[in-house]
Design brief:
alpha/beta
Length: about 475
């Protein structure tokens, strides 16, 4: 019975807990046992918390008192850039190797109030900079479907923890696809909420106008449960929004837009074949498929890799060795700065800091950052125009390829950046997007997961949940 407990959805675990078939302690212990067995080869967790059983006991007390909530007793993993009071949060960097959080992130506070059980912190690309989790200072995470391959990034540890049944669900963060791309590579569901739908208080900032915390889960229904628990306005984050009351879409014929002119180049043939199969499944479920045009979408990757490094350069300037984190002694103050940052940051972080500083520098600001922000507004207009034509959501593959080999793209940053081509636009235009498993591609004898991505209008996560569940049913029929 105990071994069977580590293969659950949130919904199924909730049923077992509510019926009293299993206690929160028994459920937590089942996941701890599986983590002990599987994590050494996957490196999904950087730390398993030493108070998991105590958290589970507290959840059992809530259940006994009739004070259950949607996530009471549910074991969840947390990405290493989300603060949990009294626990190390290192962002997988030497710079913050021993940093202990002094307060809870708002999402953690909301989950604590529900009685969720936090299993531990998961691996990631350093400061969320990367698409493979190879940029962690604590070693790469392996893909549970083929340990010679990456799980995606930067939330690769979170995605792997769910895919390998080392957590029921997980929290990650998404700056340009960092939840959705690993969700696709690992065969789980990943949601990037509308910008402002979930508080960023207690999330280590990478690029403040792009970052969002979101769920990784085994089903769309589970992602919806976790999103509902963490979403909402927060006085600690001025960018947060009230959740609007959206019109019902359950009984409406849904219209899905496909920007076909953007799918022609650089996409793996198996990904394209799976995408067409997914379209057929949606059609069979009664969804209307309509070709759409997003004229400036082809510039989204270039815009992202100007805007994101610029904000990285500003946000990571605080890690100077003077206030907290790593400090290296040197003869002069300048040499201390240089030594600390050289030792504390990995190669990819240094690359993005330098690129961001360059595009913000005198003489280049208007040429690069100014133009990028102007094109970002054009992108927003493109999406708004498509949605104004009656399209409910836009569909693309999540990633142009299945999971690639560890080390395959390490020497070619541009090839690595191209993995974000379908995901960065949602962050640039502040819209919600979800990756849903859509099939598999066979590589070297392994079945590698593939995903498709739905992007909806501002604050319309409800459309994503409706179409996502519909696709799950149609695809599994």
């Amino acid at each position: 019975m105990k071994s069977d407990l580590a293969h659950l959805t949130i919904a199924k675990a909730r049923e077992l807990l509510d019926r009293g078939d299993v206690s929160a302690v028994e459920l937590a212990e089942a996941y701890l046992d599986r983590i002990a067995k599987e994590n050494p080869k996957l490196n999904a967790y950087l730390e398993v918390y030493d108070d998991v059983r105590e958290q589970a006991k507290a959840a059992d007390q809530l259940l006994a008192a009739g004070k259950k909530a949607a996530l009471t007793g549910i074991p969840i993993s947390i990405k290493d850039n989300i603060l949990l009071k009294g626990k190390i949060a290192s962002a997988a960097s030497k710079m913050l190797a021993n940093y202990t959080a002094s307060y809870d992130a708002t999402v953690i506070d909301r989950l604590k109030k529900q009685g969720a059980v936090f299993l531990g912190r998961t691996n990631m690309d350093e400061f969320a900079m990367g698409g493979s989790t190879e940029n962690s200072a604590l070693g790469p995470t392996k893909n549970p479907h083929d340990i010679s391959r990456v799980p995606g990034g930067s939330s690769g540890g979170a995605a792997a923890s769910v895919a390998a049944d080392l957590a029921v669900a997980a929290l990650g963060s998404d700056t340009g696809g960092s939840i959705r791309q690993p969700a696709s590579f690992c065969g789980v569901v990943g949601l990037k909420p509308t910008y402002g739908a979930v508080s960023r208080s207690g999330l280590m900032a990478m690029a403040s106008s792009l970052d969002q915390i979101g769920p990784l889960a085994k089903t769309v229904a589970d992602a919806e449960i976790l999103f509902n628990a963490i979403a909402g306005r927060d006085p600690k984050d001025a960018t947060t929004i009230d959740r609007p009351v959206a019109p019902a879409v359950a009984n409406k014929k849904l219209v899905v837009g496909v920007p076909r002119d953007f799918l022609e180049k650089g996409v793996d043939p198996d990904v394209l074949k799976n995408f067409e199969t997914s379209l057929a499944a949606l059609k069979s479920a009664g969804v209307e498929i309509r070709d759409v045009t997003l004229p400036n979408l082809k510039y989204s990757l270039a815009v992202y890799y100007v805007v994101m490094p610029a904000e990285v350069s500003s946000n990571l300037a605080r890690f100077d060795g003077m206030r907290y984190g790593l400090h290296k002694d040197a003869p002069t103050l300048l040499e201390e700065y240089l030594a600390t940052r050289r030792e504390g940051f990995g190669a990819e972080s240094r690359r993005r800091i330098m690129l961001g500083t360059y595009v913000l520098s005198t003489g280049y600001y208007d040429a690069y950052y100014g133009k990028a922000t102007a094109v970002r507004e054009l992108l927003k207009s493109d999406f708004a125009a498509v949605f104004a034509q009656g399209v409910d959501c836009i569909l693309t593959p999540t990633s142009p390829t299945p999971a690639f080999k560890i080390g395959e793209k390490s020497a070619d940053p541009l090839a690595m950046y191209l993995a974000d081509i379908f995901t960065v636009s949602a962050n640039l235009v502040t819209l919600p997007a979800i990756s849903v498993p859509s099939g598999f591609a066979k590589r070297d004898g392994a079945q590698l997961p593939l995903g498709i991505q739905f992007t909806a209008p501002y604050a319309r996560e409800d459309i994503l949940f409706t179409i996502g569940k519909l696709f799950e049913q149609a695809n599994n029929a």
